[in-house]
């Protein structure tokens, strides 16, 4: 049965609004997805009925809120096939990668190698550069082919006896490429390296089972998964989290503190210093409940159809350059328009109510790889419709005419 995007849209109040007198066509979900009523109501309900700080509470509201917060952790864990104590709440994908890099970095030194790729988001580059600057580790980058895939032969040859960590995006936020992460993880493990996958994009588009992937760490953000901002998750294999030193210090992450010594709590609490993002975790859990009730395979097919439709309608556009045409890719269209800066393209599309992102997409090395300084990006989500795909193509065609 075809996926009913029109019915789904009804659950997203914001999608009813107009922009510049036109119906909003929101094609920026790769940056942040809109929120269904289920998420909005779960957070509002918590604030109106059962809110307090979590843990150590001896009163009813504290206990209820703790149960809701830990319940959200169980939902996130079940969503990715992990155990609850393997899920650390962070403020997003970025913080999760920083946590892992800082923790692993403590035992890395001069000449140890970290293998990344040219298609990484800055969130999966900069924390490793810190280790280059501070600990003398060597960063290596898997090249990207012209059609936007990782060069697997090069990846294999870059793995070596000094490779300690392989950190890669599961799906590129620019090219849409879905990387063959099973194979990459196996190759990395054979070389003795730990594997971190940046799942910020992939998890919104496909089911993820961290045990089947056999990765050591998997990170993602709530806000790209129809949940709130300010919350993300770090999955770490039990033994990996147990071996990782704490990230930030403060309340709730200790075993005991005296003036002379400290001991730490077990994971995941060891990595959650201070008052956590409680309402955000509850909203995150609600988003996962909501998404789990939908047919995710049908959603992926729907998103892909929208992408294909746009791609086919633009097939003859000789003024358009698409970045990333990998055979396995999600519904992200990054492009440049001849003679127009990507920022101008985005601003003119906005006049037609069409929201796309433009710039480097926090992926400057990738922009350089493709010889561009910026690109525009239309990203499709489950609530986008064929009519919207057409509205985008029509608006883009008029935008191009403006510059021609
Ligand atoms: N990695 C990828 C692939 C992303 O798309 C993003 C968000 N643009 C991030 C990491 C960082 O996520 P956040 O900003 O939510 O921490």
TrEMBL record:
Keyword Transferase listed: yes
Record's keyword terms, sorted: Pyridoxal phosphate, Transferase
Pfam families: Aminotran_5
Origin superkingdom: Bacteria
GO molecular function: cysteine desulfurase activity; pyridoxal phosphate binding
UniProt cross-references to PROSITE patterns, sorted A to Z: AA_TRANSFER_CLASS_5 (PS00595)
Family listed: Belongs to the class-V pyridoxal-phosphate-dependent aminotransferase family. Csd subfamily.
This protein's name: Cysteine desulfurase
Organism of derivation: Phenylobacterium hankyongense
């Amino acid at each position: 049965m075809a996926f009913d995007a029109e019915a789904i849209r009804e659950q997203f109040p914001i999608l009813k609004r107009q922009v510049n007198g036109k119906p909003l066509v929101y094609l920026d979900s790769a940056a942040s997805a809109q929120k269904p009523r289920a998420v909005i109501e779960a957070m509002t309900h918590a604030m109106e009925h059962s809110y307090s700080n979590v843990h150590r509470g001896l009163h009813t509201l504290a206990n209820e809120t703790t149960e809701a917060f830990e319940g959200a952790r169980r939902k996130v864990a079940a969503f990715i096939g992990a155990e609850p104590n393997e899920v650390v709440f962070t403020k997003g994908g970025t913080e999760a990668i920083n946590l892992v890099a800082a923790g692993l970095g403590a035992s890395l030194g001069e000449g140890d190698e970290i293998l990344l790729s040219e298609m990484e988001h800055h969130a999966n580059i900069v924390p490793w550069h810190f280790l280059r600057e501070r600990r003398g580790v060597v960063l290596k980058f898997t090249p990207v082919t012209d059609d936007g895939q990782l060069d697997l032969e090069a990846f294999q040859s870059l793995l070596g006896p000094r490779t300690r960590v392989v950190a890669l995006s599961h799906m590129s936020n620019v090219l849409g490429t879905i990387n063959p992460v099973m194979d990459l993880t196996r190759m990395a493990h054979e070389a003795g390296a730990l594997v971190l996958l940046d799942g910020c994009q992939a998890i919104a588009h496909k089911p993820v089972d961290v045990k089947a992937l056999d990765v050591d760490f998997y990170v993602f953000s709530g806000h790209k998964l129809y949940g709130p901002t300010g919350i993300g998750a770090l999955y770490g294999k039990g033994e990996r989290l147990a071996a990782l030193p704490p990230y930030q210090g403060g309340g709730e992450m200790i075993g005991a503190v005296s003036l002379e010594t400290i001991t730490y709590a077990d994971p995941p609490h060891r990595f959650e210093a201070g008052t956590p993002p409680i309402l955000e975790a509850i909203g995150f859990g609600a988003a996962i409940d909501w998404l789990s009730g939908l047919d995710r395979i049908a959603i992926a097919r729907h998103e892909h159809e929208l992408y294909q439709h746009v791609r086919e309608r633009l097939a003859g556009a000789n003024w358009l350059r698409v970045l990333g045409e990998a055979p396995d890719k999600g519904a992200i269209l990054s492009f440049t328009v001849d003679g127009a800066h990507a920022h101008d393209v985005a601003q003119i599309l906005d006049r037609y109510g069409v929201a796309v992102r433009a710039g480097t997409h926090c992926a400057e090395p990738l922009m350089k790889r493709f010889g561009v300084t910026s690109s525009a990006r239309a990203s499709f989500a489950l609530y986008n419709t064929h009519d919207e795909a057409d509205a985008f193509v029509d608006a883009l065609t008029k935008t191009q005419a403006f510059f021609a």
